[in-house]
């Protein structure tokens, strides 16, 4: 875990990250409802071709992800320029992807959700989503944990969503 950005004068941009099935949307919505910050679901920024590729069981490659990540960074940068804090969901699996997301604002902080593979597979199998459970392994293979120099913290999704949201808010000193 690394420290939060200095909140004096700069917006804070939370990126709720992790592999599929970690509950990124659930946690982000819980944070958004408490903070009142603008929220964006990263999946909504995927081009149709990416969604179709994943739905067919084929993992995305970097060339598929770059334009998507750039769109997410641009969305954040627009709000950063207006001094508005944000909550965004994005798998952000690799440090290179997070580097792009950080371009959206200096106050970017990662809420890295992690969990037991069996739990994640159970969750993925019981929901309606374009990402099939068969792609979890490719995401786990791609995932790079937050580096020591990256601003953020790791949260275990074995905890209930409300507890995770409270832990994040305590970390942000906004509880």
Short overview:
The protein has helices spanning 24-35, 48-55, 62-81, 95-102, 117-125, 136-142, 161-171; strands spanning 13-17, 38-41, 86-89, 108-114, 152-156. It is α/β, with parallel strands linked by helices.
The helix content, as a percent range, equals: 40-55%
Total beta-strand segments: 5
How large is the count of helical segments?
7
The parts where pLDDT drops under 50 for at least 5 residues are none
Give the overall form.
globular
| Rounded Rg | 15 Å
Question: How many angstroms does the end-to-end distance come to?
Answer: 18 Å
Sequence of secondary-structure elements: EHEHHEHEHHEH
Mean pLDDT: 85
Largest sheet: 5 strands, parallel
Report on this structure.
With 175 residues, this protein is of the alpha/beta class. The chain contains 7 helices and 5 strands, in the order βαβααβαβααβα. It has a 5-stranded parallel sheet with strand order 2-3-1-4-5, with helices on both faces. Helix 1 crosses helix 7 (161-171) and helix 3 runs parallel beside helix 4. The relative contact order is 0.25. The mean pLDDT is 85.
């Amino acid at each position: 875990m690394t420290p939060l950005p200095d909140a004096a004068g700069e917006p804070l941009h939370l990126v709720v990250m992790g592999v599929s099935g970690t509950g990124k949307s659930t946690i982000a919505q819980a944070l958004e409802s408490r903070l009142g910050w603008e929220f964006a679901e990263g999946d909504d920024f995927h081009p149709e071709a990416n969604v179709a590729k994943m739905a067919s069981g084929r993992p995305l490659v970097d060339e598929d992800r770059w334009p998507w990540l750039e769109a997410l960074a641009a969305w954040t940068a627009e709000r950063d320029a207006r001094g508005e804090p944000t909550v965004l969901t994005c798998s952000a699996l690799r440090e290179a992807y997070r580097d792009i997301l950080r371009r959206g604002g200096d106050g970017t902080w990662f809420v890295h959700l992690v969990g037991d593979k069996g739990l994640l597979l159970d969750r993925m199998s019981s929901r309606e989503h374009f990402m099939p459970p068969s792609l979890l392994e490719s995401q786990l293979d791609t995932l790079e944990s937050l580096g020591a120099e990256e601003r953020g913290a790791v949260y275990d999704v074995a905890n209930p969503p409300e507890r995770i949201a409270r832990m994040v808010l305590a970390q942000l000193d906004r509880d």
